[in-house]
């Protein structure tokens, strides 16, 4: 018995010791996503600490968990984070709510004018820059040069959807598990709806008209969804309704996809010989169009912002200025090579002759420049965002619509039913939110 | 009288038990296998995964990238702290309910259990705001108290069940011999209930160790336990299966080892009083 009491007392002492050890110096707490560029930054951040004496604590989370955590923190003014990694969807909404600290006073040597205009536009609200881009991405076509050649076709730099259909048909060899095209099918506003919304822009479709009426009953949306389903059902891999970025990446790297239209960041993965069996057989092209003046590519930037609840806004700004500077780019190039530099944020990077030699550099820049978040589609729209609508309600509406389209891909409902359901649920939610009567 | 069981029936039962056991264990086995492969190999078909080169690469990367021991220590403090605190409160409560039950004891027990029926997200905002106002966000003390409160109904119920199996006459005899209430609980009741208390302790440490909703929601950098360590290796854009598997094995290894060494105690406690 005495032993047990001792054990309990020991455990209590252990807990008390734990609390005592929790007192730590003030540091910057940075919430970030788990991707290659961010992890690389963590590895190089000692240079910042040595330079400034500011210690850094990292909270690395999966994208959706991070979004939930930082939203909760910023909405309650929790102050758990000094720097947050957020996307182009959050910045306009949070900036308008005054939840973020303005970065307009960054020092002159930061050279804010060097940031790519399309990216900067997506991070600015009423003239205030609320986040600095760490890396930017668009989407493009990645294709197997050997299969394209075997099919007797040549991929143009700027293909049309008709060519994509023709090439997908020619490259498909289901007996050998080679599928002409791999596209996202997993439901979610950042999953299949990112792709389908961007695709719909090139078909002239839009989410809402200027009075916020949903437009899923339009011919443009019907054409978008029918073509997507036709492509995927005829030439796509089996079980595509469960495929997101990672599933398609795995298929492409194993040589099972002829073409894959997805984030430009994938280029560095599919050309990496350590992981990809097709590393030396990959070509790149702009996302397809239909001759309507808009391409089916998106625009996204993971950016660093300071929440209004931070106790150390000046130190946080100092860190952001370091992590998104030209000097940081040079530091990465020196340590890891130019191919590993965070892409898509600064004009000067694309003017650098050494960076121009990276195989996917030019196509990434052209893809980013081809997207305009303020005028994403052919007709005028009341919202900003290329593959999303920058309103707080979009996450739930986008995911619900994504579920109906994913169900259509899985064969659980027809395209017409999916569109009708999408129209009805979007109308209901927009009425509830007070956008329409 | 014992029922006669044929050898054939015994063999079938054993086979079924093995199949069920393997099915339950398979995900952990697969995570273990994936953790010893490169990211490129981990996404291949199962047969190719097994035949490809085995490597410690993922463990090395995880070790280099994360402060494992800080997360581990946080997990130890939170799980042990919350369980011990829970036991300190639950032992007297369970004693009272088992040996001096009142009219409403059953109702109180049911009410306590009913708190487990509410989804945690239902009280997320109030608890988050309370922690924020008390300055307890990202602290271990907040998690110790919250996990203690979450597991308290289970601790009390388990102890209550064990205490009910102990004849009240023995405690009465102790009282007749002049034992005070404190002496009666410490020197008579607790030694008899050791298997039950030990299994309650072990089970609740495991529950607290694996708790992922509150530990992810209320922590940032300082108090994040191993659940946050695992969560940092998942990604919607990029290959992560091997590193995530390595992180998962590193996170569950301590509790698996503890469970392995204490399984006799755990089973004894869990089946305590099951056969009359």
Give a quick rundown of the structure.
Chain A has helices at residues 2-20, 36-44, 46-52, 63-75, 90-96, 117-122, 145-150, 161-171, 192-202, 219-235, 245-253, 266-270, 313-323, 326-336, 347-351, 353-356, 361-369, 394-409, 415-432, and strands spanning 28-33, 56-61, 83-86, 124-125, 128-129, 132-144, 179-182, 257-263, 282-286, 299-305.
Structure notes:
The complex is a heterodimer of chains A (437) and B (276). Chain A is α/β, with parallel strands linked by helices and 437 residues long. Chain A folds into 2 domains: 26-130 and 299-361, Periplasmic binding protein-like II (D-Maltodextrin-Binding Protein, domain 2); 139-298 and 382-432, 3-Layer(aba) Sandwich (D-Maltodextrin-Binding Protein, domain 2), CATH 3.40.190. Helices cover 44% and strands 13% of the residues of chain A. In chain A, the strands form 2 sheets. In chain A, strands 1, 2, 3, 6, 7, 8, 9 and 10 form an 8-stranded mixed β-sheet that branches. In chain A, a hairpin with a 2-residue loop joins strand 4 (124-125) and strand 5. In chain A, helix 18 (394-409) packs antiparallel against helix 19 (415-432). Chain A is globular, with a radius of gyration of 23 Å. Chain A starts with a helix and ends in a 5-residue tail after the last helix. The model of chain B has no long low-confidence stretch (mean pLDDT 89). The longest helix of chain B has 32 residues, at 68-99. Chain B folds into 2 domains: 7-59, no CATH class; 68-232, MetI-like fold, CATH 1.10.3720. Chain B is 74% helix and 0% strand. Chains A and B meet through helix 1, strand 1, helix 2, strand 2 and helix 4 of A and helix 5, helix 7, helix 8 and helix 10 of B.
């Amino acid at each position: 018995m005495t032993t047990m009491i001792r054990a309990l007392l020991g455990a209590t002492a252990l807990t008390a010791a734990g609390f005592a050890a929790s007192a730590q110096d003030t540091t910057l707490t940075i919430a970030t996503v788990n991707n290659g560029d961010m992890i690389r930054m963590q590895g190089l951040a000692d240079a910042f600490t040595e330079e400034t004496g500011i210690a850094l604590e990292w909270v690395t989370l999966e994208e959706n968990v991070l979004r939930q955590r930082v939203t909760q923190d910023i909405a309650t003014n929790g102050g758990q984070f000094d720097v947050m990694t957020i996307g182009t969807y959050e910045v306009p909404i949070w900036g308008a709510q005054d939840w973020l600290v303005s970065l307009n006073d960054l020092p002159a040597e930061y050279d804010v004018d060097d940031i790519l205009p399309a990216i900067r536009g997506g991070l600015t609200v009423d003239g205030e820059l609320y986040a600095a881009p760490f890396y930017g991405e668009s989407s493009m076509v990645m294709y197997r040069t050997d299969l394209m050649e075997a099919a007797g076709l040549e991929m143009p730099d700027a293909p049309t959807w008709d060519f994509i259909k023709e090439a997908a048909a020619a490259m498909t060899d289901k007996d050998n598990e080679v599928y002409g095209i791999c596209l996202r099918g997993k439901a979610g506003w950042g999953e299949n709806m990112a792709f389908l919304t961007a695709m719909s822009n090139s078909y002239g479709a839009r989410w809402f008209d200027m009075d916020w009426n949903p437009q899923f009953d339009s011919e443009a949306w019907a054409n978008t969804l029918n073509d997507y389903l036709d492509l995927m059902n005829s030439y796509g891999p089996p079980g595509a309704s469960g495929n997101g970025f990672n599933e398609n990446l795995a298929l492409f790297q194993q040589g099972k996809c002829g073409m894959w239209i997805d984030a430009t960041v994938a280029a560095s993965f599919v050309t990496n010989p350590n992981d990809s069996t097709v590393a030396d057989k990959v070509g790149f092209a702009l996302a397809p169009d239909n001759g309507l003046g808009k391409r089916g590519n998106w625009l996204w930037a993971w950016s660093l912002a300071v929440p209004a609840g931070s106790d150390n806004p000046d130190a946080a700004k100092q860190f952001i200025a370091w992590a998104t500077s030209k000097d940081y780019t040079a530091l990465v190039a020196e340590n890891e090579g130019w191919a590993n530099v965070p892409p898509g944020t600064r004009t000067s990077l694309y003017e650098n002759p050494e960076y121009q030699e990276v195989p996917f550099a030019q196509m990434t820049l052209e893809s980013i420049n081809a997207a305009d978040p303020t005028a994403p589609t052919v007709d005028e729209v009341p919202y900003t965002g290329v593959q999303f609508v920058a309103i707080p309600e979009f996450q739930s509406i986008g995911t619900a619509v994504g579920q109906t389209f994913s169900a259509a891909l899985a064969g659980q409902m027809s395209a017409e039913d999916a569109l009708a359901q999408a129209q009805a649920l979007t109308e209901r939610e927009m009425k509830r939110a007070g956008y329409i009567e | 009288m014992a029922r006669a069981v044929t050898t054939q029936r015994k063999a079938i039962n054993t086979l079924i038990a093995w199949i069920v056991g393997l099915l339950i264990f398979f995900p952990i086995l697969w995570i273990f296998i994936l953790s010893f492969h490169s990211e490129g190999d981990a996404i291949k078909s199962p047969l190719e995964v097994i035949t490809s080169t085995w490597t410690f690469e993922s463990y090395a990367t995880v070790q280099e990238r994360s402060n494992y021991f800080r997360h581990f220590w946080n997990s130890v403090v939170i799980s042990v702290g919350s369980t011990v605190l829970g036991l300190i409160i639950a032992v007297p409560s369970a004693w009272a309910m088992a040996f001096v039950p009142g009219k409403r004891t059953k109702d109180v027990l049911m009410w306590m259990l009913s708190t487990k029926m509410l989804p945690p997200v239902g009280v997320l905002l109030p608890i988050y705001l309370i922690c924020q106002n008390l300055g307890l966000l990202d602290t271990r003390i907040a998690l110790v108290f919250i996990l203690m409160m979450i597991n308290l109904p289970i601790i009390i119920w388990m102890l209550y069940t064990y205490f009910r199996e102990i004849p009240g006459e023995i405690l009465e005899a102790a009282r007749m011999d002049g034992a005070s209430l404190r002496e009666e609980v410490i020197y008579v009741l607790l030694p008899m209930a050791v298997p039950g208390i030990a299994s309650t302790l072990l089970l609740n440490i495991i529950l607290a160790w694996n708790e992922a909703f509150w530990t992810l929601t209320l922590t940032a950098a300082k108090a994040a336990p191993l659940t946050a360590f695992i969560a940092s290796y998942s990604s919607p854009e990029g290959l992560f299966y091997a590193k995530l598997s390595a992180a998962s094995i590193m996170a569950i290894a301590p509790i698996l080892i503890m469970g392995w060494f204490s399984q006799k105690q755990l089973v004894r406690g869990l089946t305590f009083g099951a056969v009359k």
